[in-house]
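Support request from a user on the community tier.

User writes: "When I paste my structure tokens into the form, the page sometimes reloads and wipes my input. The last time it worked, I copied everything first. Here is what I submitted, just in case something in the input itself triggers the reload:"
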């Protein structure tokens, strides 16, 4: 008599049919998180113990804010010529320099020029490229869409609340270099200080607009808000009957994850707002910003686990960057590692037109190609949407939804009918174009001609689509 296998009882291994080749667990790179005292590779941190390194206040106090401090930290790991390159890059940068010891420890100093983390945070003059001629300092027109200082109301039901203008670390590529950080040689900043008087003006406006249901609390960085400020802002927004969703935006978990481990007051304040929101049937979540797999370590996972245990939803918004995450394998690993750490990969942005970081931008085609390769490599709900935040205030458009894309001139044209009328143009980096096209971009009249041609093609495409839709609707009717 054959033996019976009850539900829950494992079948013999030889009864299992494997349709796919066996996978070596050692090849699952997204699960391999850096652990141990890795920071002790840095000369200045060789005697720093774990308790000290995990202290978020120590991290903030010992952050690198100028080339001299960088040299004092890395010492003989880099030649003086590199430090000189950084000093000149820092002088020409629109953003302030601020790098946490944690982040500094993740950079591979054996080859700092090629390192994807160094590229994001530490400028070097020798790699800078000229800005695109159509670049403007506030390319997304956030200030133009601000009814009160620090509140951008662009989408019908969503507003961006810039609560402050400081961050735990300053990204070279920040789209808000017009306001974030201290003044530099290149940019005199718009002031968005964390004052309750300015906040109350924003809250008053939000209450007056019944269509506003979704508020993003950003800056700067909500990591820099004190616990009592998280409580004040969170409760003020929850008290608005019309507000249904709140997102606290922060780069913090990627650059100083130990705050989630050692700053109990801040984590408790965020948790309380999340829990109060849940009792009011309102969603409060944390949006963060990881760009490269190496930014997630065992320390990161420990901090994120603490949020997960408390029921805090975390989503990620990455920025597509040349030499950072524009390779298929890197982006796939980033997406899967985020999922492994209970972070929902939400968006991947085509790099905004930002002053001083042309070397980091990619083409729109790069994003289109990456999206195809990422989709299908993991679950659909853990697959990010690749978007272009249309310059001029068109908002986020799915990257392949352009009305027209001239890959020769590098001009893509988007429409945003639910946001603003007209067309919105994004420009690929000029150095990625053919030499004869690069020459045309040096001549203002040629620039105008290329742009006019792209808009005309977009109009023609839009008209053809509208005509086809009307015919189809006619048949349906």
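"...and here is what came back when it finally went through:"
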């Amino acid at each position: 008599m054959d033996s019976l296998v009850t539900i829950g009882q494992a079948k013999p291994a030889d009864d299992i049919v494997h349709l796919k080749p066996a996978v070596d667990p050692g090849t699952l790179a997204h699960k391999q998180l850096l652990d141990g005292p890795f920071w002790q590779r840095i000369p200045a941190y060789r005697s720093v113990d774990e308790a000290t390194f995990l202290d978020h206040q120590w991290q903030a106090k010992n952050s690198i804010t100028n080339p001299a401090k960088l040299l004092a930290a890395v010492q003989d790991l880099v030649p003086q010529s590199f430090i000189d390159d950084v000093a000149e890059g820092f002088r020409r940068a629109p953003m302030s320099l601020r790098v946490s010891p944690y982040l500094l420890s993740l950079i591979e100093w054996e080859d700092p020029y090629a390192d994807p983390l160094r590229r994001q945070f530490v400028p070097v003059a020798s790699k800078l490229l000229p800005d695109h001629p159509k670049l403007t300092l506030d390319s997304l027109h956030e200030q133009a869409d601000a009814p009160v200082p620090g509140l951008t109301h662009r989408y019908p039901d969503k507003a961006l609340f810039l609560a402050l203008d400081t961050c735990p670390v300053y990204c070279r590529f920040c789209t808000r270099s017009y306001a974030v950080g201290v003044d530099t040689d290149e940019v005199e900043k718009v002031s968005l200080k964390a004052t309750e008087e300015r906040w109350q003006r924003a809250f008053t406006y939000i209450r007056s607009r019944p269509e506003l249901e979704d508020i993003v609390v950003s800056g700067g960085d909500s990591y820099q808000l004190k616990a009592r400020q998280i409580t004040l802002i969170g409760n003020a927004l929850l008290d608005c009957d019309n507000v249904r969703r709140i997102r606290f935006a922060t780069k913090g978990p990627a650059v100083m994850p130990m705050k989630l481990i050692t700053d109990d007051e801040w984590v408790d304040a965020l948790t309380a707002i999340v829990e109060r929101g849940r009792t009011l049937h309102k969603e409060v979540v944390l949006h963060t910003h990881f760009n490269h797999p190496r930014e997630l370590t065992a320390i990161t996972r420990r901090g994120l686990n603490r949020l997960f245990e408390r029921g805090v939803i975390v989503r990620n918004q990455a920025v597509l960057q040349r030499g950072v995450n524009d390779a298929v394998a890197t982006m796939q690993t980033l997406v899967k590692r985020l999922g492994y750490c209970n972070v929902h990969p939400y968006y991947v942005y085509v790099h905004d037109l930002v002053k001083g970081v042309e070397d980091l931008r990619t083409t729109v085609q790069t994003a289109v190609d990456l999206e195809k390769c990422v989709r299908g490599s993991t679950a659909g709900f853990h697959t990010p949407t690749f978007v272009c935040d249309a310059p001029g205030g068109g908002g986020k458009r799915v990257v392949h939804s352009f009305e027209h894309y001239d890959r020769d001139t590098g001009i893509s044209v988007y429409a945003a009918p639910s946001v603003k009328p007209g067309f919105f143009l994004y420009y690929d980096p000029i150095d990625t174009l053919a030499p004869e096209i690069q020459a045309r971009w040096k001549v203002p009249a040629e620039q105008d001609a290329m742009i006019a041609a792209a808009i005309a093609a977009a109009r023609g495409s839009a008209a053809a689509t509208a005509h086809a839709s009307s015919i189809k609707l006619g048949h349906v009717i």
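Agent notes: The reload is a front-end session timeout and is unrelated to the input. The mean pLDDT is 90. The CA atoms of residues 131 and 208 lie 40 Å apart. Escalated to web team.
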